[in-house]
Design goal:
The structure is a single chain. The protein is of the alpha+beta class. It has 5 helices and 8 strands, in the order H-E-E-H-H-H-E-E-E-H-E-E-E. The strands form 2 sheets. Strands 3-4-2-1-6-7 form a 6-stranded mixed beta sheet. Strands 5-8 form a two-stranded antiparallel ribbon.
Amino acid sequence: MRRLLLALPFALLPLAVAHAAVEHDHDHEHGSLGAHEHGVGRLNAALDGQTLELELESPAMNLVGFEHAATSDADKAKVAAVRAQLDKPLALFNLPAAAKCTVAQQELESPLFGDEPDHDHDHDEDADGDEHHDEHSEIHAHYQFTCAAPGALKNLDLATLFKTFPATQKIQVQLISPSGQQGVEVTAKAPALKF
């Protein structure tokens, strides 16, 4: 039940963001929702008691450098390296040691990781070059931490994330913490936000 309550504000958030993006983009482009923008990632963060949840969504271009299916050995190696980096969230999110956080659960999803069902089987049928489903590959990472001393979580520092994935220029963060809810945009030059 608690997880559902944490997810509810995030479930409604994309509707508000999409509506604002349509209003904003209507004059600039042809009604694009702006949901998939290279260089821009999204992070939902929720701190409730000793539980910290982080959900990172990013165009694959920001993390891997491409969005097509990895076919060459170099591309496969790059995908494997990025997955290995994402598998170490304590280092990636630079959580303070004093908070004594441990990873309780983590999940990575992306068509590049082979997680998209039944889309790869028809690549040969698309001989005319129509591979629309590969155009906007994203990587989704969900982490749940248990923090023995959550009071030590004064801020969330994303500097390591920006250093590890330099093509990421900014991250739109939605944060729910005991002090309330906030929406912040962080960059490599200002990578931290307060809980």
